[in-house]
Design a protein that fits this description.
This protein is an alpha/beta fold. The chain has twelve helices and twelve strands.
Length: about 300
């Protein structure tokens, strides 16, 4: 159907309501004679009179009533078609790159990705996992679009950060029999301080957790016995479960670890500073529809979790 024909139907329907050529002409910014020619053209094409008119009144004929039903239905279908086509143009497509730790991928991201995928099935999602301490730099270097990271003491100005949850940093030890286990049990039995200088420590290579545990040892006046420096909290949990040493990881990692039954949390009197886990993205990239859609959905997800937690 041509645009001109849509215009003709709109004029006809307005005249059906107003029954006044002058009012319809003024409303649609054309002369009464132009409106008359439009109606005459429709009557000619239909081979029927649509209006009966004299010097005072305008009345819709029986044929006009039938054509009004057709015109109204046609314009409704035209409007729906325009809406549907417009929505199709707005369907998001492209590639979205996300970086996070293995723990984050199934403790938080799994449900969020499921919702995103159902809303925007045409978007290709690339999920890369690795050490959380790498996330922010990968975002700054534009290797990834979105990252899940621990909030640094100072968030770079280029970034925007959305908190997901807080997680304490905890000391973990193996449950299995080992010389280390014997030492820990002996200290607990006699209620004496742990000999930290002699306990093998398994720590992160870098990142917020490493900065905070280093500061903790410094404040306690302890020179730690570092057995291994590991990339990735999940690897620390694994090594601790095998009895290699005591580790420091976010509680969130332990809660979601398949090794959690093989480790225990040490009761350390002076606790480490907790950290905040959240989403980060370059501010200017929020203009990207794919990233903005994910960012907005994450806010819905966090709000929903918050409501559920209070219920």
């Amino acid at each position: 159907m041509r645009i001109l024909e849509i215009r003709e139907l709109q004029l006809f329907l307005h005249l059906c309501r107003s029954l006044h050529f002058g009012n319809t002409s003024r409303e649609h910014h054309l002369s009464p004679s132009s409106l008359t020619r439009v109606i005459q053209k429709l009557e000619h094409e239909l081979g029927a009179t649509l209006f009966e008119r004299d010097s005072r009144t305008v009345r819709l004929t029986t044929s006009g009533e039938r054509f009004r039903e057709y015109a109204a239905e046609s314009l409704q279908r035209w409007g729906q078609l325009q809406k549907d086509l417009h929505q199709q143009l707005e369907v998001l497509s492209g590639r979205l790159s996300i970086f996070c730790s293995v723990t984050a991928s199934y403790s938080f991201l799994h449900e969020l990705l499921d919702q995103y995928r159902s809303r925007f099935p045409a978007v290709e999602i690339q999920l890369h996992t690795g050490d959380t301490s790498l996330a922010i730099q990968r975002i700054l270097d534009e290797q990834e679009d979105i990252g899940i990271a621990a909030r640094p003491n100072r968030v770079p100005e280029k970034l925007t950060f959305r908190a997901i949850r807080n997680s304490p940093l905890i000391f973990i030890a193996p449950k299995s029999s080992s010389p280390l286990r014997s030492t820990l049990d002996q200290c607990a039995k006699n209620d004496i301080a742990l000999p930290w200088e002699h306990i093998p420590m398994i720590l992160s290579e870098a990142g917020i957790a490493r900065e905070r545990v280093d500061r903790w040892f410094h404040e306690q006046g302890i020179r730690p016995n570092i057995y291994a420096q590991v990339g990735g909290n999940e690897a620390i949990v694994s090594m601790v479960s095998l009895g290699f040493g005591v580790g420091v990881v976010p509680q969130l990692v332990v809660e979601n670890s398949p090794m959690r039954s093989k480790i225990e949390v040490l009761n350390v009197q002076t606790q480490l500073e907790p950290f905040t886990i959240g989403l980060c993205v370059l501010r200017r990239k929020l203009n990207n529809p794919l990233i903005k859609a994910f960012w907005d959905l994450s806010q819905e997800h966090i709000a929903s979790d918050s409501i559920a937690a209070r219920s």
